[in-house]
Predict the structure.
Amino acid sequence: MSMASSTSIYRLEPSSIADAASVAALRHAAEVVRRGGLVAFPTETVYGLGANALDPAAVARIFTAKGRPANNPLIVHVDRIDRARQLAAHWPETAERLAAEFWPGPLTLVVPRAAIVPAIVTAGAATVALRIPAHPVARALLEAANRPIAAPSANRSNQVSPTTGEHVIRGLCAATDNLVDVLLDGGAASGGLESTVLDLSTDPPRLLRPGLVWPSEIERVIGPINCPEFAIADSAAALPSPGTQPRHYAPRAPMECHPSPNRSRLEDLTREGRRTGWLTLNSDTRDVPGGAVVVKMPRDPVAYAARLYAALHELDAAGVERILVDLPPPGEEWQAVRDRLRRGATITITNTSPKR
């Protein structure tokens, strides 16, 4: 264990979660959850900031630490399907089939909320978002705490989600005078993007946020779903799901997304004296202007998703003043990546006009 001011930081190896040091760390973190504190922990998607989901005062601490609007609901994490059922006023047959197929994993199911779930968790909505994470540290924490854990991403609201413990330390811990009581550092998150969120309270079910489970995979199990490419919720009302604000997942530097490699824009910004980062799918980065920070992104959509947030964190840490992104192509396999880029962008250039 090490200390960063008041935050207890434990570095755990997911492959040796049962060793004595890991067990002691998990017991401490579980006790913090039970007494109403905040614990940052890894999932297979991103790092979460967790509190006892059945304790309204503890959940309120999440909103304070993140600067999160009260109308933005939280996802509740559990360690078993029967515990998910207990938090639902009605557990649809579609939920049973999807849970059996995809849990533990990066799929969040929105179902009618049981009375036991505090209204603060759901932004007052009659539904609750539930999932079982796959990361061994997250599973071990849930088991040790013996509580459902409400957990959004462990970053300040609207900023880039953390995919490593170091991102949490440099971001949320540093920004909040260490309101985080414990950080369980379990290494880099393998998925790199937040979970898919599917609303089962509507007919047909509706995709609220694309993620690492693709629509075709869901439809293979339960049939057709309503699948908008880029859903935007009314930011003044209670949001149906995390991640539906028009502006979200944003790096500190203004970010532009372009439909194809835009070397001329990079050259223009460099001539203006702006230190610019470029996330590109283009394998040919010869003759890039001096001072530009180039990050070659994978052409595989799963690998790209795993790399995206880490790359944005790296560019912010490098002090770039502008970020250019080659927008990946349309298609189901790129839907989640395009969604995060478009929400994080200051400007998205389409084939017609910029979206501001």
Remarks:
- The radius of gyration is 20 Å.
- The first helix runs from residue 20 to 34.
